[in-house]
TrEMBL record:
Its main location: membrane. Keywords: Membrane, Transmembrane, Transmembrane helix. It is a multi-pass membrane protein. The lineage of its organism: Bacteria, Pseudomonadati, Pseudomonadota, Gammaproteobacteria, Enterobacterales. Residues 14-382 form the Major facilitator superfamily (MFS) profile domain. It comes from Acerihabitans arboris. One of its GO terms (molecular function) is transmembrane transporter activity. InterPro entries: MFS, MFS_dom, MFS_trans_sf, MFS_Transporter. This is MFS transporter. The chain crosses the membrane at residues 20-39, 51-73, 80-102, 108-129, 141-161, 167-185, 206-225, 245-262, 274-292, 298-318, 330-353, 359-377.
Length: 382
């Protein structure tokens, strides 16, 4: 946080409110996923046009992230989180109703802005709560984001399966977000920075830039699992197309389990060992998937990637909240922007490498990049 941390920051109601906000962010983001096929059908567009439209979501997030940190300093986390929640609640029904390319693009842009602002402000709050508590808590907060992701996609999918229209399905999701926001809002941190909160844009520097590059690698890894794991299983391992999604599902489950237990792990073995062992585990998981030609082993490898990578981004967010090269709020925005670029550019980069060589080589590059994180663990955490 941009204010002096006090014991009140670590009080149980504040910790609960922080967990709820992380849940809301994951829930709101994933609630959109089941609506994608309906939007594609409603607008009668091809995959290429849909891909370009989905870029609007990423652009909106990248626009909001550098602005969110100084706004949190000026307004307080509470106001910014509530404002971002309002944007999500406005954008989600629009995503279910729009009938033109322009309106869907604008709705996705608004949705991305809400997600980006929520991401930065909730992580600033989480850093303040963790620092005030004196023990690792960030992985647990991110675990609730993962649980929210499963809940959001699951709830909307079930409602659609039961015959609800996309609008009414998302309306139910919206009501849940509003109820949770009303409950958590009273205990969010409202302190504002009294001195100069800094510029609206801050370029990452020093240790922050290095951590940002490591976040880029880790977000790239998550993007690779999201966009390429199913193709790897079906094309390279001969798995039935209907089962291609198993890889990412197991990756996500393993990541959620890892995050929910991550705080205990970090408190027990320390940040250095968690970062080094986790990145090594993720790299080894990709190695298993590449070198052993068995679908079951490939699935096990993807689970190891999720388990190993689960606590790495939360850990780096926690580290950047303690560095002195930049104000923590601006540093969080900077590494989030650099890291988020990994999600946007990573899948395309992997596709380019796969086109020039093979998907095996592309995944191998990801494994080597994860080893860079392993070798950097001592420098980052000291």
């Amino acid at each position: 946080m941009t204010t002096v941390d006090t014991p009140q920051h670590a009080a149980l109601p504040v910790r609960i409110a922080t967990r709820i906000v992380f849940f809301i962010a994951g829930f709101g983001m994933s609630a959109w996923a089941p609506l994608v096929p309906f939007a594609k059908l409603r607008l009668d567009i091809g995959d290429a046009s849909l891909g370009l439209l989905l870029l609007c979501l990423g652009i909106g997030s990248l626009m909001a992230m550098p602005l969110a940190a100084p706004l949190a300093a000026r307004l307080g986390c509470k106001r910014l989180i509530i404002g971002a929640g309002v944007l999500l609640c406005l954008a989600l029904p629009a995503l279910a109703l729009t009938h033109t390319l322009v309106s869907l693009g604008l709705s996705l842009l608004l949705f991305g802005i809400g997600l980006g602002a929520m991401d930065i402000s909730m992580n600033i709050q989480a850093v303040a709560v963790e620092k005030a508590s004196g023990r690792a808590m960030m992985s647990g907060f991110h675990g609730f984001f993962s649980i929210g992701g499963i809940a959001g996609a699951g709830l909307v999918s079930i409602l659609l399966w039961l015959g609800c229209t996309p609008f009414w399905s998302i309306a139910v999701a919206d009501l849940l977000i509003v109820a949770l926001m009303l409950y958590a809002g009273r205990d969010l941190l409202s302190q504002r920075q009294e001195n100069d909160p800094g510029p609206l844009f801050a370029r990452p520097r020093g240790k922050v830039m290095f951590i940002g590059l490591l976040c880029f690698i880790l977000f790239l890894t998550e993007g690779a699992m999201l966009d390429w794991s199913a193709l790897f299983l079906t094309v390279e391992r001969g798995l039935d197309s209907a089962k291609g999604g198993l890889g990412y599902a197991l990756f996500s489950i393993a990541m959620t389990i890892g995050r929910l237990n991550g705080d205990r792990l970090i408190n027990a073995i320390g940040r250095y060992h968690t970062l080094a062992a986790g990145s090594l585990c993720a790299s080894a998981g990709i190695g298993l998937a590449i070198f052993i030609d068995q679908p079951a082993v490939t699935l096990l490898g993807f689970m190891l990637v999720g388990l190993g990578a689960s606590n790495l981004v939360p850990l780096l967010f926690s580290v950047v909240g303690r560095q002195t090269d930049m104000p923590p709020n601006l540093a969080l925005a900077a590494i989030s922007g650099v890291g988020y670029a990994g999600i946007l550019a990573g899948p395309a980069l992997i596709g380019f490498i796969a086109h020039l060589t093979s998907l095996f080589a592309a995944f191998g590059c990801v494994a080597l990049l994860l080893l860079v994180v392993t070798l950097s663990a001592r420098r980052v955490t000291r």
